[in-house]
Amino acid sequence: MICKKSQDNIFLTVCNTKIFPRNLFFYLHISFFLMASKILTGNMPEIMEKIINNLDKDFYSLHSCALVSRHWCTISIPILWRDPFFDENSEFISIYLSSLNHNDVLNNDEKLALKECGIIIDSTDTLFDYANFLKVLDLSLLDSRVSHWTDLRVSSKRKNKHLLTFDLANLLLKIFIKSGATLTKLDLYFREDYVEISVEVFKLLGRNKQFLSRLQVLFVASISEPFMKKAILFLRILAESATKIIDLKFSTLYCDYENYQKRELYPAFVNVIKSQEKILRYNFIGDGGLFSNFYGVISAVESHKKVLKELLIDYCVNDAEFKALENCENLEVIRISRCYNEMEILKTLSTSLCKISTLEISSYGPIDTTHIIPTLKKSGLSLQRLKLDTSSEKEIQSQTLLFKTLMESCSNLTYLYISGIVLSAQFLDLISCLQKLQFLSLCWKNDGSEKVEVMKTHIINFAEILPLTLEYLDIIDTSSSSYIDTLLDNCDVPLKKLLFNLDTSNDYEEKIDSLIRFCIRKKTLNEVYVNIMTFNKFNRPDLISNYWDKIQKDLEEYVELVPYSDIFVDIV
After folding, report:
1. Are 446 and 423 within 8 A, CB to CB?
2. Which segments of 30-184 are extended strands (E)?
3. Which residue in 76, 86, 369, 376 could disulfide with 66, CB within 3.0 to 4.6 Å?
4. Within 13 Å and on the Cβ side, how many CA atoms surround 289?
5. Is position 70 within any domain?
């Protein structure tokens, strides 16, 4: 903690979080440049503030900046503390709690909780009000970090340990609200396995409207029946306090409440929608039911349809409410995922769709592309990202027409994710036509009837026509992974990321060698994910782990082996 009496030690602020910069040369280089520059005077403070603000999630560089000078430190520290719960290290919680002073009013439960965790209230005046810097709050991460923090300090044998987590989490919420912090992003959850908001915090929210007044991104999800009333109360406070939300996401998936409870919850959410000045991005995730009443959560967006740019609909059914969104003239991104009658929803929306830049249709059943063609033609060269994903065993219908339309109208695609197709001559023509393509994910059908030599010829042709702009190739869901050696040996594209399957019982060495040869030849591949397929009757996790370790060792000199979550690129 930094005291006013010892401002000369301001750099200790960096050490408080127990994270140190990897590259000290960063700030040394910048410092040297600035010392030799006349820019140290005049507009220098404003310029540096903009530069450092752009670092955002680059924590190591931010810590480096904080070590350069007092001025840089006062710019960097607030950025580092915008979203502290993002860091898995929970030690920062001690700094929040240690900032309490004797004038703070604590209830008996909170005093007991602090005592059990060894926190002594210190009245020292701090240079930084860390709580005031908070901009991003996720209740699930709050619960997780507080639980981890208490686990390190309190015996696992303690009874009602969850009550301790409840008291400390709500104490942190009180600290944030009283500090004058103003959130820009909030993720809300109302379930048994997440922290429950106390009545005292609700009262504080009602009296301190500034806490939510600048909110821009809101996600509400996982509302269970016992917490319904508190969820509704929070939504009412939001409707009164927040008017600047531009990105709104509401999920009812896996929520365990009945239709009569929807009639209470949904209107509260509708009020949040209507109280906003302009919503640019709206994502509604339904409950997956065949028969659902939306109670206005779709039609309420009509008041924003002149400015709405992104519409994402998941796990819904086609409903008359969608007609309210027929004339969203500025819509640029539309995603319809795992819905019933996706094409009917698209048909309703497409009456006015003109210049869509991103389109996703993900379906449980086969996709009939004849319903998509009109939207593709209208969008034309504006369309840059396209995802057509089917979980069905059947192929995408009207493939030839789809490929022809994309070649003639949508040659500006930079992202393509497509499944349920056949590796045909028409498809190869399409890929060769997409000369701006950077991200490609494929899942083509192969019933095994193709002879090995014929399939190899297809793979060679595919590898040779890949555009030189391609940086990311995902073929995990295709049978072509069996021919990954053939593909890589004939590929001249400077790939940076690659995802593929590897059958450990089928020419393992040959396939790994081909990957190494590609790395040496192109010198561009940075990351690779290998989906290990063992095909043994046990399929034990320890065997898969052993194979992963072996692959990692074989590739460590050439390319980094990374988890799927770190490399996968989705459309939005």
Report:
1. yes
2. 136-138
3. 76
4. 14
5. yes
Per-residue HEC secondary structure of 257-324 comes to CCHHHHHHHHHHHHHHHHCCCCCCEEEEECCCCCCCCCCCCCHHHHHHCCCCCEEEEECCECCHHHHH
Q: Radius of gyration of the chain from Cα atoms?
A: 27
Query: Pick from 80, 98, 126: which residue ends a domain?
Result: 80
Three-state SS at 191: coil
How many C-beta neighbours within 10 Å does residue 275 have? 14
Inside any domain, residue 14: yes
The per-residue b/e assignment along 205-225, b for 16 or more CB within 10 angstroms, e otherwise, is beebeebbebbbbbbbbbbbe
Query: Whole-angstrom Cα distance, residue 201 to residue 187?
Result: 16
* Distance separating alpha carbons of residues 305 and 506, to the nearest angstrom: 54
Write out pLDDT tens, residues 280-315: 999 999 877 655 678 899 999 999 999 999 999 998
| d(C-alpha 472, C-alpha 481), whole Å | 15
| Tokens of residue 34, six digits | 């600035």
The three-state secondary structure class of 156 is: coil
Can you give the length of the chain in residues? 572
Q: What is the pLDDT of residue 535?
A: 54
Q: HSE (CB half, 13 Å, CA atoms) of 331?
A: 27
* Dihedral sign, Cα of residue 7, residue 12, residue 17, residue 20: positive
In a domain, 135, yes or no: no
Total structural domains within the chain: 2
Is 335 among the domain residues? no
Q: Which long-range contacts (CB under 8 A, 24 or more apart) does 404-410 make?
A: 405/373, 405/376, 405/377, 406/376, 406/430, 406/433, 406/434, 407/433, 409/376, 409/377, 409/379, 409/380, 409/381, 409/383, 410/376, 410/379, 410/380, 410/381, 410/383, 410/386
Residue 461 belongs to domain spanning:
446-572
* Main-chain phi, psi angles of 308, to 5 degrees: -60, 125
| pLDDT, tens digit (0-9, with 9 covering 90-100), for 39-50 | 444 345 666 677
Q: What tokens were used for 464?
A: 């040779």
Tell which of 39, 56, 80 closes a domain: 80
